[in-house]
Amino acid sequence: MQTRAILVISSILFFGGCIGLAVVRLTNPFFKGLDWLCGAFAAGSIAAILFSLRPDVSSGLVVIIPNTLILLAYVFLQAGILELTESPSRVPRLGIFLLAAQAAVYPFFRSFPNVEQLCVITLGLSLAAQTIQSAVVLKRHATGGMRPPAWFGVILLANFAAYNLFRSAVVLTLGTTQNPQLPNPLETTTAYVFLGTGLGLGFGVFWMASTQIRIALEGLANSDPLTGIYNRRWFISLCEKELSRSQRTSECFSLLMFDLDHFKQVNDLYGHDAGDAVLCGVVARLRNAVRNIDTVGRWGGEEFVALLPNADFDAAMVVAHRLRRSIESLSVPHPKTAKAIESKPLSVTASIGVVTYFGQRTTIADLLCQCDAAMYEAKTQGRNRIVPGGLEYALQG
User: Fold this and answer.
1) What confidence category does residue 364 fall into, taking pLDDT thresholds of 50, 70 and 90?
2) Residue 182 has what DSSP assignment?
3) Are 250 and 196 in contact (CB under 8 A)?
4) CA distance 132 to 86
5) Residue 72 pLDDT more than 80?
6) Crossing angle of helices 185-222 and 61-84, rounded to 10°
7) CB 28: neighbour CB atoms within 10 A?
8) What does each C-alpha distance from 153 to 145, 146, 244, 267 come to in angstroms?
9) Inter-axis angle of helices 232-249 and 185-222, to 10 degrees?
10) 179 φ, ψ to 5°?
11) Global confidence as pTM
12) Selection from 77, 213, 74, 87 nearest residue 140 by Cα
């Protein structure tokens, strides 16, 4: 009777969760995977009700159908995870194969007297295979801000797979209880495990979906819409963190700031579409010029910045020279909408300021101010050159 009560409660909880997820999904189309999770909860709810009827119904279908529904629930969960992680293939091929295999073998099971034992073993092995695959998919995407919710799901799925293998081994060795009215600790434990895992995975998927939306919104808020690199506000916050780190570790870092020379003429002569194409081309050169650990951002208009962690003055100058030459060699075709008066590709140059932090008492605002002053000094001295912050000479590339 205790197992039946747990199953009835499970059915109510899963049905309520199904309704709640459906409402959330219909009112917020940005939540990915919730429609599949809703289907998983619906299948789990029906399966729990059918399992609770077993003491009163002797038909083998009352064992076969809920087992199939439980597997279907985890196949739906796999489909939701594939959608949530934006996997190249959104089709749960293994789950479909397992469902087809069960549909093929269950009719033969009905002719055996130990049909329940066979169903339990088959379901346990199928669920273990399906949940292990889901755990592998989640582990692959456990990076960045998605790491905590993804690992939460991985741990739940791995434990659930282990329990199903254990349960199958126990049933294979000891069999199942012949009298359904007698207490069965394994069934009671299984009901608790299935209920806890189902609710936990529902929470985990919802956690991952909301985290994904938060990361996307942060990306929109912190990046420049045209070029895709960090905007001024977020770049300054990253510089503040780097300054704090450098003050703790006594390591240096450098800043680059550059402005495109005579860029206004590009917009005036060829139109803003041409100007946007040039800016995107410059950003591509900027990304190629810096290291993988460096951070780049758009300061405003045609001004750009770069943060070079663990880079002393000499290393920063190497990057600056590489960047200046790369921008100078940039060639951007005229956009079709440009008011082109010449057929030759567009080209620009850049004036670059460089400043290096060596542990002195200062602020990011002061360092950026020095870098800005050096950049304008490069413009004063003839453009298309590099000026180190605080020095009175320019270095021609």
Assistant:
1) very high
2) S
3) no
4) 18
5) yes
6) 20
7) 12
8) 14, 11, 34, 51
9) 110
10) -100, 110
11) 0.73
12) 87
Q: Which two tokens stand for residue 127?
A: 């669920």
b/e for 350-360, b at 16 or more Cβ within 10 A?
A: bbbbbbbbeee
Pure H helices in the chain: 2-27, 34-52, 61-84, 93-109, 115-140, 147-174, 185-222, 232-249, 263-270, 272-289, 313-328, 364-380
pLDDT digits (tens, 9 = 90+) for 231-252: 999 999 999 999 999 999 989 9
Give the closest residue to 7 by CA, choosing from 193, 156, 159, 176. 193
Which two structure tokens, joined as six digits, stand for 19? 């309704």
**Dist. CA 283–CA 276, nearest whole Å:** 11
**Nearest to residue 383, comparing CAs of 287, 265, 224?**
265
Nearest to 354 by CA among 367, 366, 340, 341: 367
| Tokens at 166, concatenated | 């254990």
Q: Which two tokens mark 93? A: 């091929």
Residue 335 DSSP code: P
Are 198 and 41 spatial neighbours (Cβ–Cβ below 8 Å)? yes
Query: How confident is the model at residue 396, as a pLDDT?
Result: 38
Distance of CA 314 to the CA centre of its chain: 37
At 303 the three-state DSSP class reads: strand
Helix (H, G, I), strand (E, B) or coil at 306: strand
DSSP string across 307-332: EEET--HHHHHHHHHHHHHHHHT--B
Residue 19 CA to its chain's centroid (Å): 27
In the numeric block, the tokens 């209920």 are attached to 195
Spatial separation of the C-alpha atoms in residues 238 and 87, rounded to whole Å: 31
Amino acid occupying residue 321: H
